[in-house]
Please model this.
Amino acid sequence: MTRVLYPGSFDPIHNGHVELAETAAGLFDEVVVATLANPSKGDGLFDLESRMSLIQESLEHLSNVEVTKFDGLVVDLAIQAGADFIVKGLRAVSDFEAELQMAQMNAALSGVQTLFLPSASRSSFLASRLIREVVRLGGDVGPMVPPPVRQRLEGKLDR
Ligand code: PNS
Model:
C-alpha cells in the first residue's frame, strides 16, 4: 500500500490542484492533501481552516483522499501522516528549480522523497497567486476554480 502526501498552500484550491489530486488518487492507494503555511508568501485570501474546508468540499468525489491542515514543516507532517512520498505538481520548467530545492531539503531533513507529477496542459497557467490577484481586482475566475471556491469567492466579493 502506498500513501502519499500532497502538500500546498491551496489559497485557494483551483482546478489544476483538483486535477493533480485526481491523478494522485488514481496512482496511489491513499492520498493525504494538506494545506500548510508558505512562509515566503504574503497575505492570504483564506485562513488555513477555510482552505481545508474548501479542499474537502472540492475533493469529496475522491474516496481515497483525506484532507488536513498543518502549521509546521512538511516533512514532520509526512512522517506523522505515515506518507511514503511527498507528491508535487509541475506546471512548467519555471516551477522546477524551486520544487527541486524543496525536494532536496525535505529529503535531507527526513529521507522522505518527492515525486513530481506533470499538470495537465489545459491548467498549466493556473496559479493561486494569480487567482488571488484577479479576484482582488474584480475579475472572474469562476471557470478556473471548483464550485465551492466559486461560491465562497462570490460571498467575499458581495461583502
Ligand atoms: O502551494 P505552494 O505554495 O507551492 O506550497 C508550498 C508549501 C506549502 C508546500 C511549502 O511552503 C512548505 O512546505 N511549507 C511548510 C514549511 C516547510 O516545510 N518549509 C520547508 C520546505 S523545504
Notes: Residues 37 and 94 are 21 Å apart (CA to CA). The chain has one domain: 3-157.
